[in-house]
TrEMBL record:
Record domain HTH marR-type: where: 53-186
Organism: Compostibacter hankyongensis
Lineage top rank: taxon: Bacteria
PROSITE patterns: HTH_MARR_2
Name of the featured protein: HTH marR-type domain-containing protein
InterPro entries the UniProt entry points to: HTH_MarR-typ, MarR/SlyA-like, WH-like_DNA-bd_sf, WH_DNA-bd_sf
Coiled-coil regions, chain positions: none
Length: 219
């Protein structure tokens, strides 16, 4: 096949799958597919799902779990006990006096477990809670001076942990991963609260477009 036609076809395929992707994103995508590295060691703990969606999600899940394990080690003696607490404090700082529920849901917690974590942070004098001036039923949050210091200390540890885990990836490959996966994060972060009251079959049907009869057949 003519190389120009091959390149145009590759661009068309990429654009169909990633309509918001830039020319730079395409170049990273194209080169990454051409330069796949041989595997080293055992993939996903030796248990490899037989379907591609499952394998990808297991790799993502295990990386997330490993990130938590190493991040929690990096946070030792900082004043925080786990990376989820770091996420809570970052949200409170960035959002500037957010409501409790906004912090909880932004960090993908259920209301009860998120409230428990915020209460623990409050007991350690890292955050302060006060009534919303416009809605007395709501509570707003802010970092205490102690919380500000702890968060500043933790930023560097979390940055080093991320750099360590991603050490073997080139920056272009990291950008490619972000480009390919960010749509999933954006979509489900926006809809997960609405999905909490639905059955999984209803959620799956809404995404896949499959009917209940089809779902029964798959079961």
């Amino acid at each position: 096949m003519n190389k120009t036609i091959e390149l145009v076809n590759a661009w068309g395929s990429f654009e169909d799958k990633h309509p918001q992707g830039s020319l730079e994103d395409f170049c990273r995508y194209y080169l990454a597919r051409k330069q796949e590295q041989p595997e080293k060691g055992v993939l996903v703990g030796g248990v490899v799902p037989h379907f591609i969606d499952g394998l990808l999600m297991k790799i993502i899940g295990r990386i997330s779990k490993l990130n938590m394990l190493y991040a929690n080690k990096a946070l030792k003696d900082t004043g925080l006990h786990q990376i989820e607490e770091f996420g809570m404090l970052v949200t409170i700082r960035q959002e500037k006096h957010p409501k409790k529920t906004e912090v909880i849901y932004a960090n993908l917690f259920e209301l009860s477990s998120g409230t428990d974590m915020l209460n623990r942070l409050k007991k350690r004098a890292l955050i302060r809670e006060y009534a919303d001036q416009e809605d007395r039923r709501s509570k707003r949050l802010e970092l205490t001076p102690k919380g500000e210091k702890v968060l500043d200390r933790c930023y560097e540890q979390i940055r080093k942990n991320a750099n360590m885990l991603m050490h073997d990836l080139a920056d272009d490959d990291k950008q490619l991963c972000i480009q390919l996966l960010k749509g999933i994060e954006i979509r489900y972060s926006a809809q997960w609260q609405q999905d909490r009251s639905k059955s999984f079959d209803d959620i799956y049907q809404g995404v896949s477009g499959k009917t209940r009869e089809t779902l029964k057949g798959e079961g």
